[in-house]
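TASK: fixed-backbone design
INPUT:
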């Protein structure tokens, strides 16, 4: 049976869904995963030359941060399920060739990937990366069914967005824990500016956009369909309301550290660990109890409403903050903490 999967990812919406399928598949097999992304040589374009000149910081974020962000979210999903994983990123203008080379180099025995096609494997677009992988591979390839091939597109798309946002938060929290541990072990001074960026992301995106949408749409719809999970939903509501206080505690501890350094590090450690423990418990409850319940009880109409609500995180009302703010900030965090 397969023991080592290569899971190619890109920046499209398919990445979240393919991770959601690949991780439980690997868990069932007892296999490990190498997540892989091949990005085009952005540095050779005229846009990159301009960006490098006028905003070198943004250029670095674009080149490295996006790839790390994609891979860190995938690793967060695998880690949550206890699946051994690693990740690799390369620059290549021929993704299919990079995928095949990575699979050979890493000793993978299965390539688990998705297609952007709308009619399934039998109608793969000639010239697509998936078609090219299938045409040239010497390793078995599993082309997973994607949302465009299914009738319940709203459900799949909504779940993909929710889980992708969970993974973004998990990746930032893991980075935060890593920075704190490095400081505790004496390997590096705590980067106060970077930690502040992480806390801003945690406060501004999950607390102001993600959690309110869960409360108003996912939780509300599930409660209207069944009372079996009301106690769990009440617990999650309370935790959403209390998360802001945990963020404030981290901010206060970081401010004390910035003023005093030395002895004040213990306060940062305690506050960050308290927040991380609360987040792992909270996300596990949502992923392992609420989302399966939603899959079972919610209707197509419910999923359409939920999908529309979470999709609105990227509508024109939020584009400036999300595209130029949250996504850029997430990429910067992954770049600097990677």
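OUTPUT:
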């Amino acid at each position: 049976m397969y023991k080592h999967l290569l899971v190619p990812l890109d920046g499209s919406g398919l990445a979240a869904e393919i991770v959601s399928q690949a991780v439980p598949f690997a868990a069932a097999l007892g296999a490990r995963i190498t997540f892989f992304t091949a990005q085009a040589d952005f540095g050779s374009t005229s846009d990159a030359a301009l960006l490098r000149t006028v905003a070198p910081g943004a250029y670095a974020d674009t080149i490295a941060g996006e790839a790390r962000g994609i891979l860190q979210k995938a690793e967060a999903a695998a880690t949550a399920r206890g699946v051994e994983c690693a990740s690799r990123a390369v620059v290549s203008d021929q993704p299919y060739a990079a995928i095949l080379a990575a699979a050979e180099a890493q000793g993978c025995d299965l390539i688990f990937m998705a297609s952007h096609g709308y009619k399934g494997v039998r109608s793969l677009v000639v010239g697509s990366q998936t078609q090219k992988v299938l045409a040239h591979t010497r390793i078995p390839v599993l082309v997973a069914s994607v949302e465009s091939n299914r009738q319940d597109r709203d459900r799949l798309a909504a779940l993909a967005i929710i889980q992708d946002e969970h993974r973004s938060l998990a990746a930032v929290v893991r980075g935060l824990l890593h920075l704190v541990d490095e400081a505790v072990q004496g390997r590096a001074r705590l980067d106060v500016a970077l930690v502040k960026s992480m806390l801003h992301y945690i406060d501004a995106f999950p607390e102001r956009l993600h959690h309110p949408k869960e409360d108003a749409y996912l939780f509300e719809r599930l409660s209207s369909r069944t009372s079996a999970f009301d106690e769990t939903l009440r617990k999650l509501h309370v935790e959403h309301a209390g998360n802001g206080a945990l963020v404030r505690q981290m901010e206060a501890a970081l401010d004390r550290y910035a003023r005093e350094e030395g002895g004040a590090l213990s306060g940062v450690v305690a506050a960050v660990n308290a927040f991380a423990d609360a987040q792992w418990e909270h996300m596990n409850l949502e992923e392992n109890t609420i989302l399966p319940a939603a899959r079972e009880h919610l209707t197509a109409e419910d999923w359409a409403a939920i999908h529309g609500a979470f999709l609105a995180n990227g509508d024109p009302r939020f584009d400036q903050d999300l595209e130029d703010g949250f996504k850029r900030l997430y990429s910067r965090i992954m770049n600097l903490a990677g």
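COMMENT: The chain is about 70% helix and 10% strand.
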